[in-house]
Description:
The chain has 4 helices and 24 strands. The chain has helices spanning 25-29, 177-182, 344-353, 367-370; strands at residues 58-59, 68-70, 73-88, 91-98, 107-110, 114-121, 130-132, 156-162, 167-172, 187-192, 205-214, 233-236, 247-250, 253-261, 267-271, 276-281, 284-285, 293-294, 296-299, 304-311, 315-321, 384-387, 390-394, 398-404. The radius of gyration is 26 Å and the shape is globular.
Amino acid sequence: xxxxxxxxxxxxxxxxxxxxxxxxxxxxxxxxxxxxxxxxxxxxxxxxxxxxxxxxxxxxxxxxxxxxxxxxxxxxxxxxxxxxxxxxxxxxxxxxxxxxxxxxxxxxxxxxxxxxxxxxxxxxxxxxxxxxxxxxxxxxxxxxxxxxxxxxxxxxxxxxxxxxxxxxxxxxxxxxxxxxxxxxxxxxxxxxxxxxxxxxxxxxxxxxxxxxxxxxxxxxxxxxxxxxxxxxxxxxxxxxxxxxxxxxxxxxxxxxxxxxxxxxxxxxxxxxxxxxxxxxxxxxxxxxxxxxxxxxxxxxxxxxxxxxxxxxxxxxxxxxxxxxxxxxxxxxxxxxxxxxxxxxxxxxxxxxxxxxxxxxxxxxxxxxxxxxxxxxxxxxxxxxxxxxxxxxxxxxxxxxxxxxxxxxxxxxxxxxxxxxxxxxxxxxxxxxxxxxxxxxxxxxxxxxxxxxxxxxxxxxxxxxxxxxxxx
Length: 471
Ligand SMILES: [Cu+2]
């Protein structure tokens, strides 16, 4: 973690806009100076020093946008612009985002705050911002063409509304949406309750991140914007494992994690070692009678889920999307399953023609992590991550919840690997092996068959490659 830049300088601004509109020359001179952040590190929580107090969130591999108070109005300045995002160490993507990063900075306000957001467009095409989930005047909803004219390149617009209800929200363009979201334009928004709320508990740690996805060919830098479903990089806040920071907490901390989904498919988000409650959605805090314990919650496209749990089990707990191809990075999709296929002979023959020929996936795909295959520059390995016991063989939407007895309150740094108490790690059995008794008869059936097959057949098929269009 690195230290955060200070709040930007205060400057005065004239008047309050009542509808999203182009700013006059005079007002432009008084725009809040935009704060730009280019580090992909998780920034420490931004403790509010003006306005009503609240318990700030920590944005995974992200940051919170500072504001200035202007006659009781919280003023923010978002700059839509091309950015270079390090998605994982050694792998950089050319994306579009806000204020130097994709996703943009998290905006944190308090219920009842009047908020004014200046949006400057430095993209090569028009844009707009929709404030997903908010109650606001219709002219502030940000759908270009429907609620406002699009913000042309070089122009600055003003949005102003009262953050009416507490909860977890997000923002994203509503102009050339498929392109701009495929390029990484999105951000988080949190409205904290103004007073103790019967459905919102106080927590020790409050994390947030967006689920997003890209289609970047190995060796290239820019996402393919026409991809509809077959993305190859599944990310949290435009980071992929092992580039996603761990969620470090203190033993017995009450933890909240807020997740928003701006990909084009659903993600069953799964936490190991603990049970959680879904305490909020885009609609606000959930009624207590509707909450039950889960270890996986599905976050559908365009949804937000807020989960809470007591971190009362020490250790390094996996936290990931349960779609196993979402915990992998870019790979060729149309590879047939070769498990159990012995092609030693074939490989030898091909080797005489192509000396470097290598058979992949004969014993599963784990070998892939060990292969020192030459890959193009600027490519994330498909599965990687060196753990204390070897390769974790993961990529994409994967991180680790680190629960530690001695993690200091307010310390979000990575404490390293968990030191397991003696005798609590699964280990190899070295005693005698008994031959298991196997039952050989054929299975029964629910109704008698008239014709029996002449000889029992064992199905041995190689699954044809079909891509995987139905994520
Ligand atoms: Cu997923």
